Q: What sequence folds into this?
């Protein structure tokens, strides 16, 4: 199985801050990397697919980059509704796997 | 609009089985696979398997092989996930999900609301 490791596991930030979350794959996954946002009690919501493509309807303050084994999700200016948990997911193999999540909290 | 509506919460004893349903609407059911993903409390999302709603072919994660069975009823546009030999570690929210239109088989745009399965004696 391809292991996905996110860092940090939790992060405190303020409204307006620029935030970066990192995801590392245990082997190369090309650009088959997706990012989801999950709020408490809700299903995940797709933000970024194919490492850097913004899902329709997602605000442009979200962006993704990377290829191979190292990827980042950046939120350029945090808004109150962005405080949530973020998961990366590899869709390179037919056994897709997720990172352990990064909980973004209000400072 | 695409909707996936799951059955309600379940409480089961260790060793029992549970079946969760996922009713799809807003699209042609047989055109897409339905995936099952679970999330134990405070844990990462974990893919369990999928079923091709068109021909019924299934694929399961090795971790659940032998304990999970995914089926579908095309007349009801509904997929089912049965997990057997339940243990406390199976306590989790179980989600069904469907891929996006164009991004690849394992990129999920549509999710059910989740079903909490609690395994407790």
A:
């Amino acid at each position: 199985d391809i292991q996905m490791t996110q860092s940090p596991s939790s992060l405190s930030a303020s409204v307006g801050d620029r935030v970066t979350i990192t995801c590392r794959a245990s082997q190369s996954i090309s650009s088959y990397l997706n990012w989801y946002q999950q709020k408490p009690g809700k299903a995940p919501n797709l933000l970024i697919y194919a490492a850097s493509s913004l899902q329709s309807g997602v605000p442009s303050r979200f962006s993704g980059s990377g290829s191979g084994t190292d990827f980042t999700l950046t939120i350029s200016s945090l808004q109150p509704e962005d405080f949530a948990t973020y998961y990366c997911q590899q869709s390179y193999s037919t056994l897709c796997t997720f990172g352990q999540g990064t909980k973004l909290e209000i400072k | 609009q695409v909707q996936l509506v799951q059955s309600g919460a379940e409480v089961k004893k260790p060793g029992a089985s549970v079946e969760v349903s996922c009713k799809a609407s807003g699209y042609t059911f047989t055109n897409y696979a339905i995936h099952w993903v679970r999330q134990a409390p405070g844990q990462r999302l974990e893919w369990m398997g999928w079923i091709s709603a068109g021909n019924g072919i299934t694929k399961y994660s090795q971790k659940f092989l032998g304990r999970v069975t995914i089926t579908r009823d095309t007349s009801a546009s509904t997929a089912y996930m049965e997990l057997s030999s339940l243990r406390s570690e199976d306590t989790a929210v179980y989600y069904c999900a469907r891929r996006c239109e164009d991004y690849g088989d394992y990129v999920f745009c549509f999710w059910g609301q989740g079903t909490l399965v609690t395994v407790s004696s």
Remarks:
- The two ends of chain A are 36 Å apart (CA to CA).
- The longest strand of chain A covers residues 19-25.
- DSSP finds no helices and eleven strands in chain A.
- Chain A has a mean pLDDT of 97.
